[in-house]
Automatic annotation (TrEMBL):
InterPro entries recorded: Cro/C1-type_HTH, Lambda_DNA-bd_dom_sf
Superkingdom per UniProt: Bacteria
Sequence ranges assigned to domain HTH cro/C1-type in this UniProt record: 17-71
Protein name listed in UniProt: Helix-turn-helix transcriptional regulator
SUPFAM superfamilies reported for this sequence: lambda repressor-like DNA-binding domains
């Protein structure tokens, strides 16, 4: 029995997330400390490899001074 490779996922970087983070002069590390989560989790969200839970998405958007629709434009479709 052979293993099938998983279908390639389209990963879209969240450039708006990065722009807003940098506008606040925050590093991924600083955000992770502010949210009490790992830096890799913030990095994965920013790079589009993971999606945050809805409650966390609203917290991130508020922190960045924006809306969920603006921060996570790739999820609108």
């Amino acid at each position: 029995m052979s293993r099938r490779k998983a279908d390639a996922r389209i990963v879209q970087k969240r450039t708006r997330f990065r722009e807003l983070r940098l506008a606040k002069d925050k590093s991924q590390r600083a955000m992770s400390l502010d949210f009490d989560c790992s830096e890799s989790w913030i990095r994965s969200i920013e790079h589009g490899r993971c999606n945050p839970e809805l409650k966390f998405a609203f917290r991130l958007a508020e922190y960045l001074g924006s809306t969920v629709d603006d921060v996570f434009q790739d999820l609108k479709d």
